[in-house]
Every structure is written in C-alpha cells, then in structure tokens.
Amino acid sequence: MNKDKGQLIVALDVGTLDEAKKLVYTLDGLVDIFKVGSQLFASSGPEAVRSILRLGKKVFLDLKFHDIPHTVASAVRAVTAITESGQGILMCTLHTLGGLEMLRSGVVAAQAQAQIGRIAKPWLVGITVLTSEEKEDNITGLVLERALLAKQAGLAGVVASSQEAALIRRELGDDFLIVTPGIRPSGTAPDDQRRITTPQDAIKNGSNFLVVGRPIIQAKNPAVAAKQILEEIKTAVS
Ligand code: C5P
Which residues are tagged catalytic? Predict the structure, then answer.
C-alpha cells in the first residue's frame, strides 16, 4: 500500500456483516480499501475486520479512540492484534482532542503489538474536526493546530476536510497522510456532512485517501456509483 494521492476508501456503514460482505463482493475489482466504523464494529466486532481481510481487502478501522492514554494504548494494541493470515489493519483513527500523551501512547502501542504479531505497523491517523461540523472562522487554524499535534506525536497523518487539506499539505509536507471524508460528487446530497468537497478538489488539495460512504453504499447501483467516482479521481490525478 502506498501513499499516492486520491485512493478511494468505501465506508461500510451498514448494520450487519452480511450487508458489508455483499458490498465488498459488489465492489470487487474496483475498491481495495474498506472502512469499518463504529456501526459495523459494534454489531460484528473483530470478525468484521477479519472477514474483510479474508476477502483480500485492506481495512481502515475508524473507531476514533479518545480516552485516557492507558485505555487508548490498550485499545490500539487490541485492534493491531486483529489479523488474518499475517495481515493486520491498514489504518486506524484516534481523536487528536485526546492530547499529545494519549496520541503518543497509541503510537507506542501500535509499534509494540505490530512487532509481536510480526505484521506491518498500522498507520494511526488523527481526527481533527469532523466534516459534519460547519465551517466557522477559526476552523482552519484549529485543524492545522491539531494536525501539528498529530505529527509531533508520531502519527502517520490526519483525517480532515479537503477545505483544510491544502494548508496541511503545505505546512506538514508530502509524507503526512491526509484522509478526507465528506466527499460528494457534484449533484449528490450532502446528507449530514457540512465541509464537503468533490473528488477533484480533494485531490487538488492534496488528499491521499478519499472516504466515501452513502454516495456509493446507498446508490441504486453501488458499482456504477463507485465507477463514476473512480473516473473523476482518474481525471483529477492525471
Ligand atoms: O456517507 P458519508 O460519505 O458521509 O460517510 C463518511 C464516513 O466518514 C462516515 O463513516 C463517517 O463516520 C466518516 N468520517 C467523517 N468525518 C470524519 C471522520 C470520519 O465523516 N472527520
């Protein structure tokens, strides 16, 4: 897995593992990385992650850990220990609001557990400000401040809207991952998202990973919707 710009991640925000697996089959050949969030993890747990790994896909585990450092370290150790045939999760999220010590404790735990399990260390990425929050005057500064904290703690990158991505890219360099949700191809409903962006703009602003949920998983034909977004990505990258 590389750090190229504009890689598509589909959010499996569904209630059951059967529905999630059906989406993975439907999108086979189009999508390589799937996000397991709190809804699917709450219903199906680590087995959801293992099932997706078993289908040969990568997993972005988005549980947004935010707790005392000891608890976060234990949680990161536990999710890093979820493996299938020598593969672990690709990425997982911690909330930067937890502060430097909490973020560092996660980094140390991921490293230690990856060594024990002899797997690649997952990329830990920090949530900055949710894309469902309105754009307010100070939001860009706040996102940048949290991105700097994430970098200082040793995280691989952040989750941020494309509206802040260009600034993060400029300030934190090419090696820092930017994961962008709130992607809405023009003409699709924003749902509860507020700081939305098209795939083209997200790529232009430097996002490495574009997270798309409802525009694909609730489409009449998820494969067609994914293909359209992949086309937009291809045009923007080339
Ligand atoms: O359906 P939609 O495309 O809005 O889904 C976006 C996904 O990205 C959801 O699973 C949501 O939990 C997640 N996410 C987000 N904003 C963040 C971090 C994660 O929308 N800052």
Answer: 64
